[in-house]
Amino acid sequence: MQLPNPTTVATISTLINGKVEGDGHVVITGMNEVHRTNTGDITFVDHKKFHRICVASDCSAIITNEKITTEKPQIIVDNPFSAFCFLLEKFGQKTKPEVVAVNGSFIDKSAKVGESTIIHPGCYIGADVVIGEQCIIYPNVTIQCATIGDRVIIHSGTVVGGDAFYYKKWTQPIPKYEKFKSYGNVVIKEDVEIGSSCSIDRGVTASTIIGAGTKLDNQVMVGHGVHIGKNCLLAAQVGIAGKTTLEDDVILWGQVGVSKNLVLGRGCVVLAKSGVSKNLEPGKTYFGIPAEEARAKWKEMAMARRK
Amino acid sequence: MQLPNPTTVATISTLINGKVEGDGHVVITGMNEVHRTNTGDITFVDHKKFHRICVASDCSAIITNEKITTEKPQIIVDNPFSAFCFLLEKFGQKTKPEVVAVNGSFIDKSAKVGESTIIHPGCYIGADVVIGEQCIIYPNVTIQCATIGDRVIIHSGTVVGGDAFYYKKWTQPIPKYEKFKSYGNVVIKEDVEIGSSCSIDRGVTASTIIGAGTKLDNQVMVGHGVHIGKNCLLAAQVGIAGKTTLEDDVILWGQVGVSKNLVLGRGCVVLAKSGVSKNLEPGKTYFGIPAEEARAKWKEMAMARRK
Amino acid sequence: MQLPNPTTVATISTLINGKVEGDGHVVITGMNEVHRTNTGDITFVDHKKFHRICVASDCSAIITNEKITTEKPQIIVDNPFSAFCFLLEKFGQKTKPEVVAVNGSFIDKSAKVGESTIIHPGCYIGADVVIGEQCIIYPNVTIQCATIGDRVIIHSGTVVGGDAFYYKKWTQPIPKYEKFKSYGNVVIKEDVEIGSSCSIDRGVTASTIIGAGTKLDNQVMVGHGVHIGKNCLLAAQVGIAGKTTLEDDVILWGQVGVSKNLVLGRGCVVLAKSGVSKNLEPGKTYFGIPAEEARAKWKEMAMARRK
Fold first, then answer.
1. A288: closest CA among C290, C305, B149?
2. Nearest residue of chain A to residue C164 (CA atoms)
3. DSSP letter at B34?
4. Considering the entire predicted model, what is its pTM?
5. Using a CB-CB distance cutoff of 8 angstroms, which residues of chain C are in contact with residue A139?
6. ipTM > 0.90?
7. Which residues of C touch A121 (CB under 8 A)?
8. Which of A191, A240, B68, C285 shows the greatest Cβ crowding within 10 Å of its Cβ?
9. What stretches in chain B show pLDDT beneath 50?
10. What residues of chain B, 186 to 205, have a C-beta less than 8 Å from chain C?
11. Which of A299, A221, A291, A286 is nearest to A251 (CA)?
């Protein structure tokens, strides 16, 4: 998420009653969660498990509850999660929705729809959505917080731009899950086709991206902040958890599930019903729960049967 | 399902041309299927497999095709299933739907919507639905036969209160499935969040319940009469079959499936893609198809690979 | 797909600049893909893998890029896929959509809806759709290119008649997937019930068929050109890939996946979470990924655990 104006670590620290460790003059231009940072971003970390990845990331500053590095400026606060949420709420875009009825659909006044694009009845196109030219949006589609390229086809019942499934668990004073509100968006590139009743969540602070020419079958679930490359094929009922990256030309067959924060290498293929729990190498074929290289897996299965 | 007025076993027997075994004066206040009975309920049973659970349940009377106990009054009929369906049809609530268009949604005149609740366009809110305060109902949501607490969020495309998938197979005179019509409802407690394109079926005669603070990701399917406790997490594409109970703090990861009529103990965790076919103990972690304790399962898998 | 008028192999050849091999006088009345051909149909083949099945099929002529048989007339072209798509575009029905708002739904002027059928608000009923008598279509359902029998129930959020997930991969001049546009339809017979948020795709050139009395639970995905027999049961989150056939009385439990182009024999049962990758015999019970006969599979699993 970009900030409306560049600011400094010191200024942000004042807003959240923090203590600056390191150079408070560093300029901050955006906010992002640790797996999707760019230079200029401030991020947060509140668990030792992520200290290393956080310091190694492209971020320019860190909100944390203890000093974790001398390489980057940090703002120390008691509760980094809540401080980060407070800043998102403060800086996040809040176009007031103002939908109007058009041909049986509800389209926000701030949305932009390209030439020769057809929006069937029963759709909802939310604030600041941009849709390219020659697209077909079938009936009963919901699109929010999204930028969509030319010649994209979206089938009925699909939901683009829903919130991330992302909560922080508190045990005190009473046990509850606090929602990490979503401020990111969805970017769908040109020539993408998305089947019926798919769910494409928006990023928490960054973008969920579907690359040009990629095709999704029905009932596919794409989690928050996922990056899908060009010309990928995702068969029906595939699910991909948050912030995983699929490089170009990846093929996932029916009902495959992929865990969060992984990288699936270019052109790899995952056979139906597999569960991917670790990074996959480019060009190879995988199978099983957890997914292993298909040839090794088949050999193992044949041996199990022989005995 | 509550009856409109309390009645007696003898009176009900007259309605379905039955023969009373035991005390016909017992007062009946409700009807429920065998897995979800309370004191005062009449239930039915037509298969020996369920005799024991039926007699042991909290029900006050039983419609059956043979005498199965001396502990509770029974009404003997040829076809308990059809007799029960006849009574449901007779006593079931039938508010005549009368929807009006409000801000691009269709809301039944009998529905109640709390203060500061936002219902986006494209929704359908059916007869007798109650929605609490400060809720957000995203576009294209369908809600029927449901009572929803405060601060509940429901994302686009989700369907609350669909019919149970529940049929009786007849082989005579011609093979067919007869539908067990649904007369139950859905109860969603406060602070629940439900993702996009979820399906939450209503109970056949009882309630499907989602406990306070529980969060569902996208494309989750919750069967009829399921009880989910407080502060549970259900990741994307999870499916739970009818009348299963999840105690508090249960976590089901992506694409997990759970069979019907089970109990998953408090705080247990089921890893992604697992299939649960038996009760699970509290606090333990499970994995596999069928799901077993994760540590035992991993050991077994490692041994299979070693050979 | 039927042609508007019968024509000859020679006439079709002229349209696509082809060269006739064999008898150009053979009469052509329809077009279909190779797995769903009838007498009178012309089909296409562009991969050696399908030569045998193509020649053995009921088709009356073949568009191909080399002579493959002396038994049937062929039209030889450089690019059979593109030539076939060109003909589909030329001959395919194109009723111009003209929807009108009726009780909160959008119904095409060319659609026919039977007596005593209820269509709830928020639905879209497209061009040339036919719906029988005494049907219930719940809110927010989308139906296109479909013929639906009497007493059919379709729950909210379901999409009937979406496009096939069917692409041809080109590597030249730039890598891309070319869409095989859908010209087929969906046929749903009498007394079928379909749960919420299901996806029933239409055939590419033929029909997707759901037989009388069959019941689908929520979130079921039925691919293009699938044939489902009578009185089948498909539990929640089942997925069936294109052109597979289920004979009568087949039961698929929750989250089962079935590959394309298979035949599942009459009355066979597939247990929950299984993945079917080959034809199944009638009357047997299957389990596993890939699915095997359940008894053999359980034995194998028990042995693996013992060691």
1. C290
2. A217
3. G
4. 0.94
5. 106, 124, 142
6. yes
7. 99, 106, 124
8. A240
9. none
10. 197-199, 201
11. A286
